[in-house]
## 1
Amino acid sequence: MVGAGFAGVEAAWFLAEAGHSVRLFEMRPKHQTPAHTTGHFAELVCSNSFKSKLPTSPAGQLKAEMLALGSIVLRIAEECSVPGGEALAVDRDRFGEQVTRTLREHPRIEVIEEVFGPGDLESARRLGPVILSTGPLTSPELSEWLAQATGREHLYFYDAVSPTVEASSLDRSIIFAQSRYDKGEGDDYLNCPFEKDHYLAFVEALITAERAPIHAFEAGGKRDAEPQEQEAAFLEKIKYFSGCTPIEAIAEKGVRSLAFGNFKPVGLTDPRTDRRPYAALQLRPENREKTLYSLVACQTRLKWGEQKRVFRMVPGLSDAEFVRYGVIHRNTYVDAPRVLEATLELKSEPRVYLAGQLTGVEGYVESAAFGLYAALAVHHSLVGTSLPVPAKECAYGALVGHLQDDTQREFAPMNINWGLFPSPEPRPRDKAAVRAFKIDAAGRAFAEWRALLDLPKG
Ligand SMILES: Cc1cc2nc3c(=O)[nH]c(=O)nc-3n(C[C@H](O)[C@H](O)[C@H](O)COP(=O)(O)OP(=O)(O)OC[C@H]3O[C@@H](n4cnc5c(N)ncnc54)[C@H](O)[C@@H]3O)c2cc1C
């Protein structure tokens, strides 16, 4: 195991409890990442929340599945919880100390406080399967090895993501399906047509909206600099990464820069007016089932509440349900559909598995969940069986489906959300009925998958 973050802790614990010997490498506290500050395993680098506890929420469903598989992170989070309303919030120091102590005291886990480098890989692989769970801030040498092992274009160093919305929340009386000049893209792309007044109001709102603060390490260590100076330093750092310029920075260059760029309406005819719109925001399917759409070329650093307010000004998006907000931040992850098996084993490197955020899931809970999943895959291979793939109806299956969906798209990390779960066919108009169907189907699909697993006794 490399990395004692959320994924590494879950995987090491599961495998040790299953009777396997685990060697766990963690470079902190000797070598910190730019965001971690302690020597605790599973350090919460930002918020202290593990999202909703409600069993009727997608995060609640994922947690229920993890607990049924023996999640140590969630068990300790419950023990260290503090009042957080519907969310599972923790006392971060108690949580970190308890996780670290619990893992260190396990008789089958040997902790090695060293940076694990590419040179260590061959000898480790001779001893047994290797799980890399080094997270969004993987050390530079190991990142370089991953870039070579996956093909450079399949490893990302920055996450530049546009918001994603649920298909069922789009206003189809305004939005129309059309490819430019009716060529090529079939009805895959949807278009939100702007009249000039709408467009100008949108641009004004976009450039004046509140932006998320930039972490000092992302701005090249400019801790005391003014926010504008930090933003300029950050934009300079990321300008060589394609698609990383925030839409609000593009809009600031001139009032018509989006109409001539990201939202250019060429080749489009609005069926309501029979004219070319002044500008058009395009939506691209995010999954094969077309239940989720991302807003094309809308990568942004606006605060989440501001994204909802501003993007809902786009014609056809007034009731849009956001399942994922846009972000631009430092994040190491692979193009999972191209480089990972459904077991999270690297296609190009047998016996090397990825876990946690490196795989393309996002957040503390999802990363921990995908530490457990990698451990399940390794355990199955060690006992001579293979891990059955979970059905998409449960939370694990929904996320594995995201990691394996090879639809042509810019692969982006995802947190758990109802849009990833299949809808009933035909789809009822009533949203509550759709949710009830998904919750019920998730419970059944997970129970069926769990019954197929080769789990250790006890
Ligand atoms: C600035 C920032 C803020 C965030 N805020 C939130 C938030 O508010 N809520 C949320 O849910 N998620 C947040 N995230 C995402 C969250 O941190 C990740 O989803 C989660 O930590 C990923 O878990 P992981 O186990 O994959 O990686 P990590 O938890 O990052 O663990 C990786 C571990 O590997 C170690 N490591 C790296 N390279 C090596 C090496 N070569 N040898 C040995 N050890 C190594 C690191 O020291 C680290 O302990 C944030 C991320 C960042 C960077």
## 2
Amino acid sequence: MRFDILTIFPRTFESYLNESIIKRAHKKKLIKIKIHDIRKFSKDKHKKVDDVPYGGGAGMVMTPQPLHDAIKYARRYNKGPVIFLTPDGNTFTQIKAEKMAKKSGMIFICGRYEGIDQRIRDTLIDEEISIGNYVLTGGELPAMVLLDSISRLIPGVLGKEQSHEQDSFSKALDRKKEYPHYTRPAEFKGMKVPKVLVSGHHKNIAAWRKSKLK
Ligand SMILES: C[S@@+](CC[C@H](N)C(=O)[O-])C[C@H]1O[C@@H](n2cnc3c(N)ncnc32)[C@H](O)[C@@H]1O
């Protein structure tokens, strides 16, 4: 799976992509991540990527030219859908992540300021996705949220000790929220682990866990 991410803050991805599971998946070539600095595509002599909104009002809008050229460039290497992260997009869900994990690639556009020029949205974006009903300062965190939740569903990305098949919202859990987990010690500050979990009775444990799904 190839992810091309278009942003004006490429360094915001560095620490996250260089840690743990995502780093390992990249190293194992299960995912490929390319971060593109939209500013580099600007034909403005000061490498400007934003301008005042037509019609007036507060805030700036990302100009179409650098975005257009950056998307066309990424498209040469990535045939997957072009996705704009935006609060007014379709809300991201586990089912959506599962569908996206089957694709060969995708291109994420991270907005800033008031967002991007509508003409880019109308012509070059295949899908608009929101990570929830709240507003962040930029699309970088939403892009990382999608990248993480999609990557962990790709076969081989999670180690043997981890699995996504029994996670909250999975098909196996009827799309419900997961049951509680306990680990050693059996008693902690007077709180005991539910008896059924230490009984060794697999059928009863499965029934208890099912009863705790929310
Ligand atoms: C300050 S926001 C723009 C908000 C926009 N003016 C609005 O009211 O919908 C700047 C950028 O952050 C990203 N962003 C903010 N909240 C987001 C969310 N909930 N989901 C996805 N992207 C988001 C988008 O890329 C957006 O273009």
